[in-house]
UniProtKB/TrEMBL annotation, chains B, D:
SMART domains from the UniProt entry: AAA (SM00382)
Family: Belongs to the ABC transporter superfamily. Sulfate/tungstate importer (TC 3.A.1.6) family.
Organism from which the protein derives: Methanococcus vannielii (strain ATCC 35089 / DSM 1224 / JCM 13029 / OCM 148 / SB)
Entry membrane topology: Peripheral membrane protein
Domain ABC transporter as annotated: residue spans: 2-227
Subunit record text: The complex is composed of two ATP-binding proteins (WtpC), two transmembrane proteins (WtpB) and a solute-binding protein (WtpA).
Catalysis: reaction(s): tungstate(in) + ATP + H2O = tungstate(out) + ADP + phosphate + H(+)
Pfam families on file: ABC_tran
GO molecular function: ABC-type tungstate transporter activity; ATP binding; ATP hydrolysis activity
A GO CC term attached to the entry: plasma membrane
Record protein name field: Molybdate/tungstate import ATP-binding protein WtpC
Length: 243, 314, 243, 314
């Protein structure tokens, strides 16, 4: 019947998604080796540090615009919203090419270079890429939060004597704490997951995903499995917190 | 005390046109159907939105451009807008904390106002766990604790169960004795029971302003219609007749045949218990009549209708 | 003031996101050459065909489960929802390793191989990866749609004489048309954007993103720009339809 | 006609306990406060949810396990649930199309029913563009066009403006003449005006079942309380007194001092225009009284209260 067909198709989908993961976790290869492999540890540290840095920056520049977008209507608002979605629309490898072309091809980019801000094969290049791909997640999470905060709360706060800024920090921001946390986790997760754009901008210092590809290309599947399992565990931990 | 001078404002789908109004230090009701722009007026008074043109004065001072945080007007929105992450106590204390009052002073005032409003035992609860009535008291306490110059209430009973509505109206009467109130509503019962001054607002325009006499003598057709009067034409003149100022009788029950009466047929009956509402078809008009609940007329019966009072609407 | 700071930070964010894109579109390099380069055309066709195939499959196996999830509460529902989010949680390169390890390391995988279903360096490998990473988008879009369809509509339809299956096809499905379209676009876009997992499973036949990386590594930035611009235009078109 | 036998069901936060009820071919009202489980009963009757235990019979046939699509009961939910992507015409025609009727037959029946309900001129509109009243008529038409064995209405006036409520009640009376109706509501006015049979449901339990007499003589304390009676204790016996069956007078106005009366003080007054509701404090009880609107008692006045009728509650 109708129901049976639906349940069978659903089971198929679930198996397709979960079996590769289960197989990986049950046959992780030699994890011990990986844990004592300084290249693995370094790549993980670089991934975490870069993603963390990008997340903090995203917080500071992403929350203000999400507040403005949730509270005000202005001419060109949909253009602004479209700009924020750019990193989600464009293939990752292309994003790398775009950022590199901007850095090398424009006076602004060369200006950054001349003051010593390097991105090619540099930690800050990784941060730049992670920030670029992660910002939409931060902005969208925070905006969804602000949209759920009843504007009357802010109105009442002002009639009770709080200025606009005080109202933002005492009422609006505390109320979207959960959205800020989940926006940060998504931005962070998006960052450590990125590989396409990083391959273009900064093959070195190697992030964990780059190292996985590197090991796979040089030594094959078995060599890349243990690092992959570590990444899986890390990602699943992050997502459990998110939920 | 509070004076609006030619205030106009377009805001979302609402539009206020040229409202002038002077409220004294007592209980003022702004009465109007939903969508009349009542909330826009109250938001203009709080300072949250600025009028497009016109002035607002308080005790003679022009406050049109004063930001809300410097007016000290208490505001209780329709949904109460309690801060959901703070306890009742913290909600009430919020304004005093912002003002940097001492812990001791805050504690004393919050307890005083909570006692007055009977919410002492819920001070530690979070707003989401409160009943509608408790939420409303908390919102009122949060405003009153700052000794506001005026208390602004936006449809205070709209979000409440009908069962507690009547109690709330009595409570508001008490509050009106300690602070001047501007209360907007679409509910005639609230307006009749509470209003010392009543302004009628229809389609963003001020239609009448006065005491509760305005229910008795509608000034024009628009108001009469809004207040539920029958509009009848007698000898080519227009009159308003209140449904409760009609008498409906079976033709054979009529005692005094000299009185002016109209033949009609009962179209529909709605039974409210204490009274019944009849629609009586007279010529091609349908006239609403209120009769006692004990009346036993049936749909389709022929009746005679008398008007105890007619208000002439030039 | 408060406002000014917010606007400045917002402007910064917008410039950061839009300038690389503008620079790329204004300096696309030699597009004409790219259009007549059969390797470019082939890679684009492979990307589109694989993403299209993955989207159609996602539609058939994704919509049923999203209906069940939106209508029924059952034991273990949150486990099912977590499984659906796996592809979003795990880094792309790792997904490639996972799928490959499953294919080579389990009897089910070898079963597929023995009946001739190949994934390594094969078109169907690309489809498999694209389906894996795209499914959550399809399921989540369709589920959001079904959740917005008032259950009373289905109830009324049944009292009017329609069976459960008829009600699904006559009432529920037509009402979420828009969600199905946007779920399909997101799945498709996610597919053509994927590169990390494809690098592991199927370097050949080259998809457009793989070709971009390939050209970049072999001939440098200038050689990879024209294909990138084509991908950008394609992605923006897709997203405009989506919005 | 329709018979429920010991029906029990837990559904979300609601719980029906052991409902037994036999409805005749007329207008039946299920009356109860919100949350009483009224909607669960109606959903059990439609077949959308199955009772945990108990049986449902229609004309003697056990239909407990019959799927909704094979019952042919018309169902109009509280929000009307019109198919938003179909025109009014297509909404009404939906059931006949499912049954594979001919284009001609569908056209004729849709036009007939639309004319009966006065919605012919909106047949091409989409539901979202309709007023509440028009949406409701469409939903009723969609059910009636299939000549249902019974029409099930879930709070038909709850989503409507008060201004058209009274018209809708009169319309429903007309519809009740062509099809048996089961109508659930929390509104006493609807129940009084429409109900030939009235069942009172409180907390998932059936508390009384009968004709409109049940408003006059509440069977027990729970029902009396639900119906708004005053519960008073006189000489250690419990009575229910209807607010409208009290008389409140100033002590000096009392003519006949032999009648049994009680001294009290007016606590609060709410002015409904045609009548006023007073709370009078008698000893430590608060007694609700209804007086004429012309009564001019003030809050705080001492009064004498008479009970015109007391219903003994063993």
């Amino acid at each position: 019947s109708f129901f049976t067909v639906f349940i069978v198709l659903s089971a198929l989908l679930l198996l397709f998604l979960v079996l590769p993961l289960l197989n990986m976790i049950l046959n992780p290869g030699n994890i011990q080796n990986a844990i004592f492999d300084s290249e693995v540890i370094n790549s993980l540290l670089i991934s975490l540090k870069a993603a963390g840095t990008a997340t903090v920056i995203a917080l500071y520049i992403g929350v203000p615009i999400s507040y403005l977008l949730s509270r005000y209507h202005f001419f060109g608002k949909n253009v602004v919203e479209a700009i924020i979605d750019i990193p989600m629309a464009i293939p990752h490898a292309v994003i790398g090419i775009m950022i590199l072309a901007f850095y090398y091809g424009t006076s602004i980019g060369r200006g950054f270079e001349s003051i010593g801000f390097k991105i090619v094969d540099n930690f800050w290049g990784i941060v730049t890429v992670m920030l670029y791909v992660g910002l939409p997640y931060m902005v969208n999470s925070a905006r969804d939060g602000f949209l759920m905060v009843d504007e009357e709360l802010e109105n009442v706060s002002r009639t009770l004597g709080a200025s606009r800024a005080k109202t933002f920090f005492k009422i609006s921001l505390p109320l979207i704490k959960n959205n800020i946390v989940s926006g940060s986790i998504l931005t962070f997760a998006r960052g450590i997951s990125e590989v396409g754009a990083i391959l273009v901008i900064a093959y070195f210092p190697k992030t964990a995903p780059v190292l996985i590809l590197d090991r796979f290309n040089q030594y094959g599947l078995t060599a890349s499995k243990p690092i992959s399992v570590i990444m899986i565990i890390l990602s699943i931990l992050l997502f459990s917190v998110f939920r | 005390m509070l004076k609006l001078e030619n205030v106009s404002k377009s805001w979302k789908e609402f539009k206020l046109s040229n409202i002038s109004l002077e409220m004294d230090k007592n209980y003022c009701i702004l009465l109007g159907p939903s969508g009349a722009g009542k909330s826009v007026i109250i938001q203009c008074i709080t300072g949250i939105i600025k009028p497009d043109s016109g002035k607002i004065y308080f005790n003679g001072e022009d406050i049109t451009n004063l930001p809300p945080e410097r007016r000290n007007f208490g505001y209780v929105p329709q949904n109460y807008a309690l801060f959901p992450n703070m306890s009742v106590y913290k909600n009430i204390a919020y304004g005093m904390k912002i003002r940097g009052r001492s812990k001791l002073e805050i504690d004393k005032k919050v307890l005083d106002i909570s006692e007055f409003l009977g919410i002492t035992r819920i001070l530690n609860r979070k707003p989401l766990t409160l009943s509608g009535g408790e939420q409303q008291r908390t919102a009122i306490a949060r405003a009153l604790v700052l000794d506001p110059k005026i208390l602004l209430l936006d449809e205070p009973t709209a979000a409440l169960d009908t069962s507690i509505k009547e109690n709330v109206i009595s409570e508001l009467k008490k509050i009106g004795e300690i602070v001047p109130v501007v209360h907007i509503t679409h509910d005639f019962v609230e307006a009749r029971t509470l209003g010392n001054q009543i302004a009628i607002l229809i389609n963003g325009e001020l239609n009448d302003f006065g005491d509760s006499e305005i229910f008795k003598t509608p000034k024009n057709e628009k108001i009469a219609k809004f207040l539920g009067y029958n509009l009848v034409k007698i000898e080519n003149k227009n009159y308003a007749v209140a449904p409760e100022e009609t008498v409906v009788k079976r033709p054979n029950e009529v005692q005094n045949p000299i009185e002016q009466h109209y033949f009609g047929k009962v179209e529909s009956i709605v039974d409210f218990g204490y009274y019944r509402k009849l629609n009586v078809k007279i010529d091609e008009y349908s006239v609403k009549c209120i009769t006692k609940g004990t009346n036993n007329l049936k749909i389709g019966e022929d009746v005679k209708v008398f008007y105890k009072r007619k208000i002439s609407l030039n």
